[in-house]
Amino acid sequence: MVALGLCLAATMVPAAREQSPPPQRATSHAPPQDGADAWLALAAKAESQMRLDAAMDRLYTLLRERPGHDDAVAARIRLARLLAVSGSLPQAIAQCQLLRDDTPDDHPLHRQALDLATVLVRRLRAAQSPGAAYCPVIEPLASRGMQALDEPRALVSGLDGRLLLLDQGAGAVYLIGQESAAAVASPAEPTAVAMLPGGGVAIVGKTGLVVGQGTGPAARPIPLSGTWGGTARPVRKVRSMAALSDGSLLVVDRDYQGVLRCDPSTGGCAPWGPVGRFRVVRVGPTDWVFLLDDRGQTVRVLDPAQRTITTVGPIVGGTKVEDVEDLAVDLANGVYLLDTSQKRILAAHIRVAPDGRFGASIGGVLTVPQEGDRAIRNPSAVGVSPDGAVIVAGKSSARLVRFR
């Protein structure tokens, strides 16, 4: 899929270095004395304030004035994401191509650039050909070593492409690689899982939280607890969990009306974000937080400062969201909504309008097969790989299905 993405990118963006707008020096700030570090800090500050044009301006300036600096590599992947959310997909793909060309194969951002380019090329193709299939290939996913599924509830991906699957009905957790799957030692009655930034896994169950690398025996569970309303309380009914870039965990618990932020090293939790009943929490690549409401009809998107960026649903671009059971987020903050009542996945793209307001549109609809050797009759969990392939798991199913 990566090779296809780069081939398409090469035809859609034939002159990558000519597609990027010429960098403009920021007019409200003199050049920082500290060079690349300061430009990156200014870009991060502008982005946190949702001044995306200013953030991109700082990043272009960094790339022009410090092209060989280590921070220029991080700036380019950041710039690609900002261009994508601004609707400038060809320029975003160009930045991914430049990052690919400027980094060795073993650089940690080299692979990420390839994957992000593939995601964006698919998005560009959907915009240019609305009638074309968003993911034309549907295939069973090899999962040797995994038992037939009972009730999968979560399917999350790491940057290395591995999938972490929670089969809550069977009380099992699997780490799925390219060719096979392996059971992961977990606490009793696991209810939620998350992939950690460094490649580790977090699993929470009846006896607490376990953090590890997904191999070997499970560590001793750490009980989760927090204080709200002036009272210390245990956190024992976690239904969803996701990791922020600093390794802390956002948790949705049935006994708390909102979201908790938990320290995986101590188990201490504190209220975070808005009050409400939520079904699923997911975190995007830039620490945007996606909260699915308990009715399964609306996703609230928050920035790292807990401010609402936009909402997705209950109607997106004329398409009604019926009953979303799970969601996934790709490398460009695209949202994939598993609508179980309609047996379909809605691919929603978030972008900012010229007036600075964020909104969502439907980029594609994936119909979950109901017949044949690829059938998932009761879909219950959705995940997305780094290169944008969409994976679905279902109740009482012997397989996973991948759209790519």
Short description:
By secondary structure, the protein is an alpha+beta fold. It is built from seven helices and 27 strands. α4 runs antiparallel to α5 and α5 packs parallel to α7.
Give start-end ranges of low-pLDDT stretches: 1-33
> What is the H level of CATH, i.e. the homologous superfamily of the largest domain?
TolB, C-terminal domain
Rounded average pLDDT: 89
Note the overall shape: globular
CATH-assigned fold name of the largest domain: Neuraminidase
Give the strand order, joined by hyphens, for the main sheet.
10-9-14-13-12-11
- Determine the structural class based on helices, strands and strand pairing: alpha+beta
Largest sheet properties = 6 strands, mixed
CATH architecture identity of the largest domain: 6 Propeller
Termini separation comes to 7 Å
β-sheet strand percentage: 25-35%
Number of domains: 2
